[in-house]
Design goal:
heterodimer; A: 277 residues; ten-stranded antiparallel β-sheet; three-stranded mixed β-sheet; 7 helices; 13 strands; B: 164 residues; mainly alpha; Butyryl-CoA Dehydrogenase, subunit A, domain 3; 0% strand
């Protein structure tokens, strides 16, 4: 196919334009590590301030409000299957235009884990490099189990992670269009899990209560109950979390589940029930 | 995260011409193509922390953004053409270095204006962005062989017009 003319007659890229744009980008976003650190610091500061404000408001409310009103409002913070939920219509982290990934954004884990950790009164910013699962399993920071059942088509990925505090580890399995990520936390310390309103329910894993959350925040930070499933359960003190989601191959954003969500849930429960410590 | 090893300067140097040429095909003027290229890179650059290391992923992300930017551009009810665009014909780069190329490009854009939106999109992705048929197929949801067949047909049509 003779198609050279389509390449050859394009306007040349002006060097002045390229240089100017590069200068603009590098001056506006000076350093990725610093940007990330700053963003995380802001997130953590925001979360701490948010938590403190809520505690103070609740304290004032408990003192001031009539009993019946108090009972209604306290339902806002739910406890399902032993997990505290902070239901909200909007994503708790609103910096930037893209979605926050459940686990692949390791900083999210770090934030959560550090906030939850009793030994980390002052949260610190940490970026977690990925670690091969074999490396994690050869020297695990605490005793935990991996699922023996993995749904068809899913392969364990190399991008495991381990917290610097050794308080959690994570693994991921990937198929053609979906990922399942597993977070194992040494101890759940009653920190509230941000979720969409009415998105959580109690189900059973091996006859024990477990928390199922349907959905994830969309690109506009609104909760979409079709974007993924998350399952939380405990074995002893250990907190396990499995998240299933699908991403767009075009822009890598988390998308609504395109297949049979009930089958996905069955697979997650089977995975959870196959974990032996 | 897997993006620490990405050399963003290299990525910029390698992707910028392709994004710019993608927009050249889409909008037909250099000034608007530059403007949309800048918007695309600003969006991509500001979210660098969410990129994986492999080039295929980066391409998919950047051209995903570029396509959205193009859609937004054409959705604008009124487009004001900057004065510099009107004066582009007197741009020294074109006047002194490559007048013939400019004339040819205008001719090409005129021929493309007779194509459907999908056909134009395919040409922009193939000859502007210089993506492979496989990358294009993943991006627009057609099979790879389908992309090849359609492109072959469109290029044949364009060449006939070109050689008139």
């Amino acid at each position: 196919m003779k198609d050279d003319f389509l390449y050859q007659n394009l306007p040349p890229l002006r060097k002045e334009f390229a240089d100017k744009l590069y200068r603009q980008l590098t001056s506006k976003y000076p350093d990725i590590a610093m940007s990330r650190k700053r963003a995380l610091t802001m997130n953590i500061q925001f979360l701490w301030k948010f938590a403190l404000t809520i505690i103070l408001m609740l304290f004032g409310f408990v003192l001031a409000a009539p009993t019946d009103v108090r009972a209604q409002v306290i339902q806002w913070i739910k406890v399902v299957a032993g997990f505290q939920l902070e239901e909200r219509g909007e994503s708790p982290i609103l910096n930037g235009g893209e979605q926050i990934t459940p686990i692949m954004t390791k900083e999210s884990n770090a934030t959560l884990a550090d906030l939850a950790s009793p030994v980390s009164a002052t949260p610190t910013v940490a970026v977690y490099p990925t670690t091969a699962p074999q490396t994690i399993l050869s020297n695990p920071p605490f005793a935990f189990g991996l699922p023996k059942y993995i749904p068809d088509g899913f392969i364990l990925m190399d991008n495991g992670a381990i917290a610097k505090s050794n308080s959690w580890v994570s693994f991921a399995w990937s198929s053609q269009n979906a990922e399942i990520e597993m977070l194992v936390e040494q101890r759940y310390t009653d920190y509230p899990l941000p979720t969409g309103i009415d998105s959580a329910e109690e189900i059973q894993v091996n006859g024990q209560p477990a928390l199922l959350i349907r959905g994830w925040w969309d690109e506009n930070h609104n909760w979409d109950p079709t974007r993924g499933l998350a399952l939380h359960w405990k074995i002893g003190d250990i907190h396990y979390r499995l998240i299933y989601y699908q991403r767009s191959p075009v822009n890598w954003e988390i998308e609504p589940i395109s297949g049979d969500a009930d089958q996905v849930l069955k697979d997650l429960i089977n995975m959870a029930e196959s974990v032996e410590q | 995260m897997m993006n620490d090893a990405i050399n963003w300067e290299e990525m910029y140097v390698s992707c910028l011409p392709h994004v710019f040429h993608f927009f050249c095909f889409k909008v037909g003027t250099r000034v608007e193509a530059e403007e949309l290229t800048a918007i695309t890179f600003e969006k991509a650059w500001s979210n660098r922390m969410n990129y994986r290391q492999d080039q295929g992923h980066i391409n998919a992300r950047i051209f995903g953004i570029a396509r959205k930017v193009a859609v937004d551009f054409f959705r604008q009810p009124k487009r004001e053409v900057p004065l510099s665009a009107v004066l582009e014909i007197s741009d020294p780069i074109f006047v002194e270095d490559d007048v013939q190329k400019r004339i040819n490009f205008d001719k090409l854009i005129l021929i493309l204006s007779g194509l459907s939106e999908q056909e134009k999109e395919l040409i922009a992705l193939k000859y502007g962005a210089e993506l492979t048929n496989r990358e294009i197929s993943q991006m627009i949801g057609l099979s790879e062989s389908n992309v090849g067949t359609i492109l072959h047909r469109i290029v044949g049509k364009i060449r006939l017009e070109w050689e008139k």
